[in-house]
Amino acid sequence: MTFRPALALLLALTVTCTYAQSAADLGAGGNRKAAVWPLQPTATQAQAAQLSARFLTRFHYDAQPLDDTMSAKIYKDYLKLLDSDKVFFTQQDIDQFDQYKTKLDDAIWNQDLGAPFAIYNKFLQRAVERMTYARGLLKDGFDFNGNESYNYDRKDASWAKDDAALNDLWRKRTMNDWLRLKLAGKGDDEIRKTLTKRYTNYIERLKQLDGEDAFQTFMTAYAETTDPHTDYLSPRQAENFAIQMKLSLEGIGAQLQARDDYTMIFSLVPGGPAEKSGKLKPGDRIVGVGQGDSGPITDVIGWRLDDVVNLIRGKKDTTVRLEILPADAGPDGKHELISLVRKKVNIEESAAKKKIIDIKDGDVVHKIGVIDLPSFYSDFGARSEGDKDYRSATRDVAKLLGELKAAGVQGVIVDLRNNGGGSLAEADSMTGLFTGKGPVVQVRDARGQVDVQGADNADPVWDGPLAVLVNRGTASASEIFSAAIQDYGRGLVIGTPTFGKGTVQTLIDLDRFSQNPDGKPQYGELKMTVQEFFRINGGSTQIKGVTPDLAFPNNGDDKDFGESTYDNALPWTHIPPADYKPEGDLKGYLPQLESLHDARVLKSPSWKLMLDELAQYKEMRAKTTVSLNFAQREAERKQLDATQASFRARQKAIDGGDAFLKDEDSALDDGLDPGERSLKSELKQEQDAKKAPDAQLREAAHIVADEVGMLKANPKLAADILPPGSDYLATVLAGTDKPAAAASAATAATH
């Protein structure tokens, strides 16, 4: 879990934010509308920083002293978090900051955070100046007949020499903003209005950044300097992390979004109090919040999103009253007052899900089950309290496997693409659903002691053909699971090489070690690297990740995304293997499966379309500069339009419909930022993304179906491919095939 740079945080305040924030603010004095500048650190923040340093310098897996050398690293990372594109600070600013380069360690040890706050305050000043300058350029517009260009990839650029050089950069940046809207068909007046509103909103969001944001950014720089996956979590961030892990919160069940001065309802969580009430709908604007049946209504127009969320969240079975400006009402429309009783809300959108893909094989259709797992979640609190119904990824997946077996599936795919990990214990126990009892992962601590962890399942829940679908976003606990399935020979790993995160973090509640008399969260938490994990074969997933048995084309993101891209990542290493026995061996049959795969995709229109889309994506990513000449950009736009139109036509020819592509402009650059499009448009984009064809998932299903066909044709292969004692052939394959004609409707529905 990596926190975003300050500018990204600013932008995030304007877009969708799941209703999951904490009620606690580190050093904040209640709810806020705008911060008082210059920002000043609090004593609590200084104490939290020193307490964090004590842990990081003594108990981190790769503990490093907090000295001048570390200070220089923190300084570099802090500037990167604040201004990664080098568009706010000038070289003159950096020269002034250099006095702090070796003093940030002293700032932490001496509980004097004046230096990092001075840098942050300068960032706020410069950011407002830049946005104000950009807004001032809009009055006269621009001439797009010249031969200028704008380099938007500035990660390796030098700092602008002075304000004049930075102004020139922002002139080009603003020209590009204008040109994007012009190419999308907008007139000058509409463009001027859109950009004026955009830059004004940025300034207003900047004014809402406060001391907690400054402290969070600085502590993120320190934590991530120790290693890429150590983080500092403010009380609010710690609460968010807990919600992500347990997939539940206590509130009204609404996804909120900041729009201009309003907090708008973006969507409703199915089954939550807001949805059940029937009184709220997407687009409604929250203008006031009251506590209980008669508490005063607090006006929240112009408030920061997480502060509004802070008022709305609360304990289960308590009442909150919302003053609403309905979606279809103008600014002066009649307000409505709605009372809701807060409840526990499950975030099902992030939970494991299942579906079935029908694959035609000659005259029969094989049913392949798919389990989509976004993360390895677990409600640790409910489990420790003895709640028999505590939420966990393993329990949910076990239930889904039972349902898939009842539906007669002949093979299973666990889709871990973009699953960034989660609970190590969940990865262990979920592996057992497919392997039974046995070691899953080896964990080494800072003292060099190795502990073998595993699953306690007496018998696997699914003992038939299995594949794990992975990509570059598959990380941490997902890599543990994938590696164990591969080492046991229990199933095929299909896709692209994974992220390469081979470290284990633990959460340290700093309030437990502080002199905090009132018990309210104030100091936050450390998510600190304390162990490194290794495969049961002795190798590490660190840096190298998991290499698929059967590779799919990658999108080129590995150059910018993954453990290998971090300067301070731990190196790859290995230890002796654990005591385990492989359950199957697919290596002897992999050439046959690869041959079938290669022959099939060679003839597959959907696979060829995917390859062409990937090629275009790589070409677009390789560009770092755009022309500011209208005629040239218009020609490029027309060429891109033609390519996208061709892709849409090919997709329609493949599946016979274009339900998710009816809006032809949806794939083109409209020049707008998140939060500037209509609510209807943004909701449609979300729905379209869910409906979009998935050539890689379908091909993975074909590969599993190939394995099913091999077993059907030659049951003797079961001894090599399936785990010992598997009753798959007798109870699953026997009599489960169905005629292709009878399955045609289901097959079309799952494309």
Automatic annotation (TrEMBL):
Keyword Transmembrane helix: no
Domain PDZ intervals: 242-313
Keyword Signal: yes
Segment forming the signal sequence: 1-20
Documented EC number(s): 3.4.21.102
PROSITE patterns the record matches: PDZ
A molecular function (GO) term: serine-type endopeptidase activity
Top-level taxon in the UniProt lineage: Bacteria
InterPro entries (alphabetical): ClpP/crotonase-like_dom_sf, PDZ, PDZ_sf, Peptidase_S41A, Tail-specific_protease, Tail_Prtase_C, TSP_N
Keywords annotated in UniProt: Hydrolase, Protease, Serine protease, Signal
Family label: Belongs to the peptidase S41A family.
Stated name of the protein: Carboxy terminal-processing peptidase
